[in-house]
Amino acid sequence: MESVWKKLTEEQNKEVKRQMATYTQGAQEIIPTEELEVKVAKSVMEKKPLKIKLGLDPSAPDVHLGHTVVLNKLRQFQDNGHIIQLLIGDFTGKIGDPTGKSVARKQLTDEEVKHNAKTYFEQFGKVMDMDKVELHFNSKWLSKLNFEDVIQLAGKITVARLMERDDFEERIALGKPISLHEFFYPLMQGYDSVVLESDIELGGTDQHFNILMGRHFQEKFGKEKQVAMLMPLLEGLDGVEKMSKSKKNYIGIDESPQEMYGKAMSIPDELMVKYFELITDLSPEQLTKIKDDLASGELHPRDAKMFLGKTIVRMYHGEEAAEKAEKQFISVFQKGTMPEEIPVVQWEGDAKVPVIDLLVGLKLLNSKSEARRMIENKGVKIDGEKVEDMQHLVTMKKDLIIQVGKRKFLRINI
Amino acid sequence: MESVWKKLTEEQNKEVKRQMATYTQGAQEIIPTEELEVKVAKSVMEKKPLKIKLGLDPSAPDVHLGHTVVLNKLRQFQDNGHIIQLLIGDFTGKIGDPTGKSVARKQLTDEEVKHNAKTYFEQFGKVMDMDKVELHFNSKWLSKLNFEDVIQLAGKITVARLMERDDFEERIALGKPISLHEFFYPLMQGYDSVVLESDIELGGTDQHFNILMGRHFQEKFGKEKQVAMLMPLLEGLDGVEKMSKSKKNYIGIDESPQEMYGKAMSIPDELMVKYFELITDLSPEQLTKIKDDLASGELHPRDAKMFLGKTIVRMYHGEEAAEKAEKQFISVFQKGTMPEEIPVVQWEGDAKVPVIDLLVGLKLLNSKSEARRMIENKGVKIDGEKVEDMQHLVTMKKDLIIQVGKRKFLRINI
């Protein structure tokens, strides 16, 4: 293997170094880095693309910026001509949870799996070139395994090794039951890599154990072992918990430029650099400059964050939308005025409406209790005036402006 | 369930008690006895036979008296009209050991499995009525399971439960690896009972865990649970280790009347009653009488043991052979003379033969070193004269008698 280095031309060697600098940027762990370098070197020398695998849960196709940490990394590989293997774990999705205890693992129909895969594809298209992506469904090979095949597979791993997985270890320590079928999910993920002959598998750090299964089984099946590439988990807008839909601390990649920009501005300062590193398309040089300038005080954190917001909007809505979102933000939040464009709703109801009913009726807030809380927190303005009375009766008229929180505006038309 | 008792006639009730007395005789553990009683009661009332399962390893068809402990128990069920389900575990046999580490679990071909099953059948025929036995091969259903079925099955048991099996627990404690596929052998055995809808599964005490798997899975699949019936393991002629071919402490059910009788006489006195109980066809009343008479001193242990030997020979070779074996034993061992019938071999070799070559050539002993040892131990006689010289040259002639040990005789014909 090592002999590959001797055969590289100086130019090829430079190219390997360049690619490695890109790939290692932001990655939390690469197991092992040396093997990645050898794979890249061989690929450069033989002009043979590497196969980069990403496994996807078929049941959760809502994509937010937390997911783009790995997607951006995949994009980098793609930019260098490597092949992306998207693996939809539909086999497990179709089985569901045989014990019926896990709500998360509900059984999916073929149609749901297809629909979810399509949703992934559409959303991923905002980060990657989907024409150059291979799409795989693991039911294709897993559903063909019979009992004997399964036993052969199970013969290639020990119980002790499986119990090393953090969550298993923890449950054993707590005396919580592990159903035997659960041992098979890491086996499947590993076997998928055997079938796909993946060179690299990407995932969040929470996939550490499962991705190493790929290495284990590839070796047992006499194949070249994949490299595990683990990306950090991105904290959400709260700065504490992993970004997720259920925690409501996310920026969805389908959101409007204004929402995206506004949410980006609410990221805690400490996380800014991490966001730059993990979810933007800036080059290593640009990143270094931002870090240096922030450290030296040459770049104000507020300006850096505005650049972050603008960059995110640019990535998902284009240059023009990014400029506009920035301008709008400056006019509303920095100058204290309203945005230039406010959505208009046609009002067909009563001439006078209790403020709480109005807020819920216009779907500015989800419930009366939310509306009450917002008024209590002085977050509701009618025509620029703070509402302080819960019982306030709003007189409806054309061009009435209703504002909730910092970023939600509506203009009434009658 | 309990209501079955109220519906039984007095006569039926007596019949249940009679059957229960037979079945519980000699059984080490019945889990649970109450369920067995209910099953027997229902069977008597509804005139519906019970299904009694015995699982067999397809790789070891050499049957000795150790095996007949369960076979005799099956015979008792059969005598009362119940159905015996012999289950050949050919699925595991065909798979072998996927890790290749277990020599015992070598992969068998279809032909070997068939041949071994036939051997079982022939040999079991000496204990049971094979016309009334169902023969099943678990590959019939196990080979049809696909990965999804396996996962559904695995979802019905926890890892903790499997790790309770003594040998797993021990290996975990010693840090010895358990390959994941090993967890599937008890699952298969349990699933076999689901398919066969067995009422009772018989086995040695070493099958405790595996047989309870049948109860577990039958319940999970919504079926009536089988009763586990565990028979003691029979110590071999050495009185210490479990009777087995590899330990050479066994009495094979294919052996000659003389061998059987002679070996029976070498059983340690302490084990005699256990042998009577577990491997003979004596009635509970006969057994009680033997125990009582031995305890009171009315029956001499030597006489009891001779009756044991005679009973065993009668069971496998008939009344006449039993009488003859006893007579012969008395004449040789008690009176110190030769048996009445000595096998004759035709001699075609040299007129003078070194004694060691002769013993090995006639297959009286397996090797020259064994022959030397036997001469050293003064166990070789030619025409009644002890051979003491290793180099002794035997002059071959008609009716020359060669004796090795206490029981092997040959008469030369020229």
TrEMBL record, chains A, B:
<comment type="function">
    <text>Catalyzes the attachment of tyrosine to tRNA(Tyr) in a two-step reaction: tyrosine is first activated by ATP to form Tyr-AMP and then transferred to the acceptor end of tRNA(Tyr).</text>
</comment>
<comment type="similarity">
    <text>Belongs to the class-I aminoacyl-tRNA synthetase family. TyrS type 2 subfamily.</text>
</comment>
<keyword id="KW-0648">Protein biosynthesis</keyword>
<feature type="short sequence motif" description="'HIGH' region">
    <location>
        <begin position="58"/>
        <end position="67"/>
    </location>
</feature>
<dbReference type="InterPro" id="IPR054608">
    <property type="entry name" value="SYY-like_C"/>
</dbReference>
<dbReference type="InterPro" id="IPR024088">
    <property type="entry name" value="Tyr-tRNA-ligase_bac-type"/>
</dbReference>
<dbReference type="InterPro" id="IPR036986">
    <property type="entry name" value="S4_RNA-bd_sf"/>
</dbReference>
<feature type="domain" description="RNA-binding S4">
    <location>
        <begin position="353"/>
        <end position="413"/>
    </location>
</feature>
<keyword id="KW-0436">Ligase</keyword>
<protein>
    <recommendedName>
        <fullName>Tyrosine--tRNA ligase</fullName>
        <ecNumber>6.1.1.1</ecNumber>
    </recommendedName>
</protein>
<keyword id="KW-0030">Aminoacyl-tRNA synthetase</keyword>
<dbReference type="GO" id="GO:0004831">
    <property type="term" value="F:tyrosine-tRNA ligase activity"/>
</dbReference>
<dbReference type="InterPro" id="IPR002305">
    <property type="entry name" value="aa-tRNA-synth_Ic"/>
</dbReference>
<feature type="short sequence motif" description="'KMSKS' region">
    <location>
        <begin position="242"/>
        <end position="246"/>
    </location>
</feature>
<keyword id="KW-0067">ATP-binding</keyword>
<comment type="subunit">
    <text>Homodimer.</text>
</comment>
<dbReference type="InterPro" id="IPR001412">
    <property type="entry name" value="aa-tRNA-synth_I_CS"/>
</dbReference>
<keyword id="KW-0694">RNA-binding</keyword>
<dbReference type="InterPro" id="IPR002942">
    <property type="entry name" value="S4_RNA-bd"/>
</dbReference>
<dbReference type="InterPro" id="IPR014729">
    <property type="entry name" value="Rossmann-like_a/b/a_fold"/>
</dbReference>
<feature type="binding site">
    <location>
        <position position="245"/>
    </location>
    <ligand>
        <name>ATP</name>
    </ligand>
</feature>
<keyword id="KW-0963">Cytoplasm</keyword>
<keyword id="KW-0547">Nucleotide-binding</keyword>
<dbReference type="Pfam" id="PF00579">
    <property type="entry name" value="tRNA-synt_1b"/>
</dbReference>
<dbReference type="InterPro" id="IPR024108">
    <property type="entry name" value="Tyr-tRNA-ligase_bac_2"/>
</dbReference>
<dbReference type="Pfam" id="PF22421">
    <property type="entry name" value="SYY_C-terminal"/>
</dbReference>
<dbReference type="InterPro" id="IPR002307">
    <property type="entry name" value="Tyr-tRNA-ligase"/>
</dbReference>
